[in-house]
Design brief:
heterodimer; A: mainly beta; 7-stranded mixed β-sheet; B: 6-stranded mixed β-sheet; 0% helix
Chain lengths: 116, 111
């Protein structure tokens, strides 16, 4: 089946530093990947749509200069949280759409970010 | 923007009993998907409904898509402790490629 990995699975950083999260589709190609954020006991909120070879599309209210997205290949998208602050602490989850056509999104295991 | 409402927010169920969670949208949907997220885990795809009035079953889970393609339901029979988790519906708006998640129904099972 379709597998999506994320790295790291958890990270603790100091306020003001930047953190990069990787999302990889392991056994399929994904032109489109999505980045979500989930706060405790809340639903998933779409942050941005990551498109291979082009700029990401950000949802309203999401700062593109703070959450940098790079989708350099058909199997890898990265999210960099720049100058992280404690309010950025959250569970970040990526998903990937299989290029073979189904609308199904396959989710990564998530990255728990804690900013001290 | 599109909103997807899901009720109830919490469901405490006695083991062995049935329950239903509902998902409603104000706009017509291209399809609707259901996910389950265990505590501490990530969403796992359960099923996708595409056709108006469609009903699909997975063992003790029955999924239904409304005739107007604006609502959906998930019914679980004979609840087991393994059913614990949060069930999300996610709507794919017609002509769109983004999923909008409902607020989820958090299910707790009393043994």
């Amino acid at each position: 089946g379709a597998v999506v990995s994320q790295h790291p699975s958890w990270v603790i950083c100091k306020s003001g530093t930047s953190v990069k999260i990787e999302c990889r589709s392991l056994d399929f190609q994904a032109t489109t990947m999505f980045w979500y954020r989930q706060f405790p006991k809340q639903s998933l909120m779409l942050m941005a749509t990551s498109n291979e070879g082009s700029k990401a599309t950000y949802e309203q209210g999401v700062e593109k200069d703070k959450f940098l997205i790079n989708h350099a290949s058909l199997t890898l998208s990265t999210l960099t949280v720049t100058s992280a602050h404690p309010e950025d602490s959250s569970f970040y989850i990526c998903s990937a759409r299989d290029n073979r056509g189904a609308d199904t999104q396959y989710f990564g295991p998530g990255t728990r970010l804690t900013v001290l | 923007g599109q909103q997807v409402m899901q009720i109830p927010q919490y469901q405490h169920v006695q083991e062995g009993e049935d329950f239903t969670t509902y998902c409603n949208s104000s706009t017509t949907l291209s399809n609707i998907q259901w996910y389950k997220q265990r505590p501490g885990g990530h969403p796992v795809f359960l099923i996708q409904l595409v056709k108006s009035g469609e009903v699909k079953k997975q063992k003790r889970l029955t999924f239904q898509f409304g005739e107007a393609k604006k609502n959906s339901s998930l019914h679980i029979t004979a609840t087991q402790t393994t059913d614990v988790g949060t069930y999300f519906c996610a709507a794919l708006k017609a002509a769109g490629n983004k999923l909008t998640f409902g607020g989820g129904t958090r299910v707790l099972v009393k043994p």
